[in-house]
């Protein structure tokens, strides 16, 4: 059916609900260029002020899913559960969760990108392992998941072009920060990538996209509702990103941290978040009758070494040198190591996550633009987390760099790690779990 875009903008501007047909018309027209940017800008602003109903959000998500290719993973046995994090600093969960849940039989068919950010994406991190590559054919990818329960492939094809175009438009029209638009954007990408069920890790705090618990909860609830309304079982964890997760921020450094965690001696917060997200993934995949039972199963495969073994098989199946798992000093190494000592004794009160991420980026761990080179060896390792006691002179952070001159990094860290003379409580790691 043909509509006039101007009428649909007006309808939304007046706070009325759009039909499925009207929403498909908008997304099709915007994708093929028959609806111009200026009308889509006005529409996005109308959504920003008038919001969308649950039905509209679900229709918008599915219209964006169908704007491009939809990955068919039906040749993979079992329920494909995907995990998505709304971004953070030093978030190593994907590297741990893949082998962890694969070890109890959950198929993990991960399509991943490089992207921008403080550190590289999952693929960049994995490329710290010599020989590892994600340039595999789709058939091989599916065979590997069926055989090993875990494989990673680079992003290919034309997934959610409507979202790509709309996200770029929102970026320059002050309409990024709209719950229905963010939620449909994220969910459309997961669904187009073939997920049957989705576990969301919505971060909250200084290093997160959503800085307050209320805003994070609103986004989490919106995404869970969309997922469940379009037939993808979806749950969300709201987790802390006031300080970086774990200790390591950097590509090879995070691979080592993931290996430590799979061996059962990773950082406490990273381990706990992985067990929580992992147990929900296992439960949604139908591999355990409860999340409590799922958690026991995951603890078991850490304790008996199976999770580590799965990681090795995964790496070598995609050309990687799996001996790094037992000898982590084979990972890329930075030339210079500098400690940042505490100037006074006290308790760590703040380690502002986004600024610590910026410091890692100054070292070259991340990409500022699409074409920047990434240095896999460099990064930061926190020696203390919020709430820890420190003595004057004790190291707060170890800086791994490939240049001798790290004054700007030290300045950034100095400004963003704050000590208090009084005891400080460690922040809550997991605020809420939203299942419907
Ligand atoms: N991340 C996305 O993928 N989409 C948004 O709209 C915001 C953050
Ligand atoms: Ca980390």
Automatic annotation (TrEMBL):
Classification via PROSITE patterns: THYMID_PHOSPHORYLASE (PS00647)
Superkingdom of origin: Bacteria
EC annotation from Swiss-Prot or TrEMBL: 2.4.2.2
Requisite cofactors: K(+)
Transmembrane segments: none
The keyword Glycosyltransferase is annotated on this UniProt entry: yes
Short name of any one Pfam family annotated for the protein: Glycos_trans_3N
Extent of the signal sequence: none
Catalytic reaction equation(s): uridine + phosphate = alpha-D-ribose 1-phosphate + uracil; 2'-deoxyuridine + phosphate = 2-deoxy-alpha-D-ribose 1-phosphate + uracil; thymidine + phosphate = 2-deoxy-alpha-D-ribose 1-phosphate + thymine
A GO molecular-function annotation: uridine phosphorylase activity
GO terms for cellular component: cytosol
Keywords: Glycosyltransferase, Metal-binding, Potassium, Transferase
Sequence ranges assigned to domain Pyrimidine nucleoside phosphorylase C-terminal in this UniProt record: 347-420
Single GO biological process annotation from the record: pyrimidine nucleobase metabolic process
Subunit structure of this chain's protein: Homodimer.
Family: Belongs to the thymidine/pyrimidine-nucleoside phosphorylase family.
Task of the protein: Catalyzes phosphorolysis of the pyrimidine nucleosides uridine, thymidine and 2'-deoxyuridine with the formation of the corresponding pyrimidine base and ribose-1-phosphate.
Name this polypeptide is given: Pyrimidine-nucleoside phosphorylase
The organism of origin for this protein: Niallia circulans
